[in-house]
Amino acid sequence: MSTTDRELRVGMVGYAFMGAAHSQAWRTVNRVFDLPARARMSLICGRDAGKVADAADRLGWDAYTTDWRDLIARDDIDVVDVCTPGDSHAEIALAALAAGKHVLCEKPLANTVSEARAMAAAAVTAQAAGVRSMCGFNYRRVPAVAMMRQLVADGRLGVIRHVRATYLQDWIVDPQFPLVWRLQRDKAGSGALGDIGAHIIDLTQYVTGRRITGVSAVTETFVKERPLPAGSSGLAATVDGATADGNGADGHRPATGAVTVDDAAVFVARLDGGVLATYEASRFATGRKNALRVEINGSLGTVAFDLERLNELEFYDATRPAAEQGFSRILVTEGEHPYMSAWWPPGHLIGYEHSFTHQMRDFVEAVATGVDPAPSFVDGLQVQLVLDAVTRSAELGSSWTEVEPALATVAA
Ligand SMILES: NC(=O)c1ccc[n+]([C@@H]2O[C@H](COP(=O)([O-])OP(=O)(O)OC[C@H]3O[C@@H](n4cnc5c(N)ncnc54)[C@H](O)[C@@H]3O)[C@@H](O)[C@H]2O)c1
């Protein structure tokens, strides 16, 4: 329990999938970690008054509003937490920074490089006035991932040679799954690439401390036309009156629309320091629900992480005597592992939602102590530059496409 009287009054925009995940984290963070400020769940924003009132009650917010501009205009809000689709990230975050609010913005930072660059530039300017910003790549906060980074930073893997990263889902394998916002370029920016590929791009750059410098990519949209949705939230959606054969109850096909994003993206990459990497992001990996896997091979060892076993790391230490070599399974639940001393005794496992609680912990601590949290908006721009390079490479028949360093492009 926090021992401070200082409050950070949070206003959150969006109340569905990430809205619920962030609310859980805001509800929990002060009670698990002793922080220099208490997060207060002051205001939640959504466009439908009835639904957002219900969400405020269910998720634990003091009050609600139906316009994010009201939220930003209020002088009793210190932090703006952006949990909307990518098409509104830039507008909301830029307005919030201009109003002097600290900003936590979900990933990917924006839908385009130019939006992300404007956000990164505004964040750099705001830093001078003590205004902080962070992009929500929550998987950095899984203790096993943070531990993976420590192993690399401590030199336990030696010289890094390979990164192998996949993020696989299957929630749109059914061609009758409706055309939700995630399948529309104007709302989402890109498909599997920006939604889940962005996570493995950030995670591998974070763990290795290296930047992706160039890519060669292929992308595919397997199902090009889908029925329009009646409603959607997170990865779930409904079609008006649809039956199993894809027809409506009256035998007529529901109205359809074009899918304008990739269903899958596969690319090879170089990271600085001579690292070769492969990346795969797909929503068509039948049977794979949320399978994020990363393996890093170095001259002295290998480390591997699988989100479906998120309390564990596989570690191969090539410096051990030949007779003892082999992969060991590290259960990342000891008090000395990142974040874990605040939770349960060793061996008592944590889950997906804890990554968000850890994200809020790091954000609150950074804001309250006056330091810049990571990943910054510049880090978010770095990921956006890779997403853009992958898209351009795929459009040009997989031609090799360089990725600029983000900071140089912000300064330019
Ligand atoms: N970090 C992660 O692991 C993770 C996981 C899922 C989604 N995301 C990201 O979170 C963001 C939201 O995704 P989601 O899955 O929660 O989507 P969602 O469809 O479940 O929820 C979006 C919410 O935004 C609201 N909204 C949309 N436009 C709005 C506006 N102009 N004003 C106010 N509210 C508005 C919707 O009403 C809804 O409440 C996206 O950027 C997505 O990429 C991150």
TrEMBL record:
Residues 8-127 form the Gfo/Idh/MocA-like oxidoreductase N-terminal domain. It holds the Pfam family GFO_IDH_MocA. Residues 146-303 form the GFO/IDH/MocA-like oxidoreductase domain. Keywords: Oxidoreductase. PANTHER family: BCDNA.GH03377 (PTHR43818:SF11). This is Gfo/Idh/MocA family oxidoreductase. The lineage of its organism: Bacteria, Bacillati, Actinomycetota, Actinomycetes, Micromonosporales.
